[in-house]
Task: inverse folding
């Protein structure tokens, strides 16, 4: 695959390869996507000369028009984009919005500076033992409203359908990512809260070769500085598996919704109301124990969150 220095370089090369004038490119882009409703040939000229850079959404649509995967082009080490928020900028946003310290500061023994975790995946004795800690984590996070049986979690994570990792810092469990490939029928039922997360059985899970929705049970980083490492593993697995068309999760904390703000998503269901300011998530002026959200594959692949994480890899 050809590497490009920036979007200006990409547009110039691809337009010439397609034998289009700047005016013709303007016309085809306008017909291709609503993003280019007010586009004129002068704007295309300014893009190619590097005078201005199209918005990130327009960059994604331009790359899609030419038949390339945006995340592959934009995350290349040589590609520079002024309109893609930096990792530092995104981390500053997370820090500013982290009103509850419980889930980003529950490990006072961890250093504040950059750190790398040891990743452990099932089947592994250490991963099996960590199911007990994950059970405690959810019980604490939900103030006892949810109880996950450790043996149940262990059974599911040791299937072929799991995308599970535990992260350790000098032997201390400091983060996790727990997700399962679920057959489309049951994935929809989970999203709409027709079945609970603890009702999922192994026969409801999809094998690696089968179409599935990836249901993300829980993600925890321990420190903001380690978020990238955990999301790298999860998002790279998603990017490399085209059989995963959709993703779903129950968002239980306001800080988790900050991450979702950078990814187009739809609200599918609301959990029970919460009268505890530290429990659940605020939505339209009211608090709920959780909200259930859906993310389309294309939206995730084209989101600033994933593009930055893949660039940082």
Result:
């Amino acid at each position: 695959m050809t590497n490009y220095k920036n979007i200006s370089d990409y547009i110039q090369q691809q337009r010439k390869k397609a034998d289009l004038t700047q005016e013709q490119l303007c016309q085809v882009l306008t017909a291709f996507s609503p993003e280019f409703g007010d586009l004129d040939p002068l704007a295309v000229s300014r893009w190619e000369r590097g005078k201005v850079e199209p918005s990130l959404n327009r960059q994604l649509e331009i790359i899609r028009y030419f038949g390339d995967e945006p995340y592959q082009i934009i995350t290349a080490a040589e590609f520079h984009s002024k309109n893609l928020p930096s990792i530092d900028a995104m981390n500053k946003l997370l820090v500013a919005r982290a009103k509850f310290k419980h889930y980003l500061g529950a490990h006072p023994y961890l250093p504040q500076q950059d750190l790398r975790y040891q990743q452990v995946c099932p089947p592994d004795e250490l991963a099996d033992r960590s199911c007990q800690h994950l059970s405690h984590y959810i019980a604490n996070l939900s103030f006892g409203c949810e109880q996950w049986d450790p043996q149940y979690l262990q059974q599911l994570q040791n299937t072929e359908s799991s995308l599970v990792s535990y992260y350790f810092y000098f032997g201390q469990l400091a983060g996790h990512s727990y997700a399962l490939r679920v057959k489309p029928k049951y994935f929809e039922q989970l999203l709409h809260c027709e079945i609970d997360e603890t009702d999922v059985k192994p026969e409801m899970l999809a094998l690696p070769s089968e179409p599935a929705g990836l249901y993300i049970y829980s993600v925890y980083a321990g420190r903001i500085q380690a978020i990238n490492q955990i999301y790298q593993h999860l998002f790279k697995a998603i990017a490399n598996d085209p059989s995963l068309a959709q993703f779903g999760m129950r968002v239980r904390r306001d800080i988790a919704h900050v991450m979702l703000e950078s990814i187009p998503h739809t609200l599918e269901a609301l959990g029970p109301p919460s009268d505890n300011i530290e429990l659940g998530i605020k939505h339209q002026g009211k608090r709920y124990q959780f909200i259930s959200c859906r993310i389309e594959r294309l939206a995730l692949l084209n989101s600033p969150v994933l593009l930055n994480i893949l660039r940082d890899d």
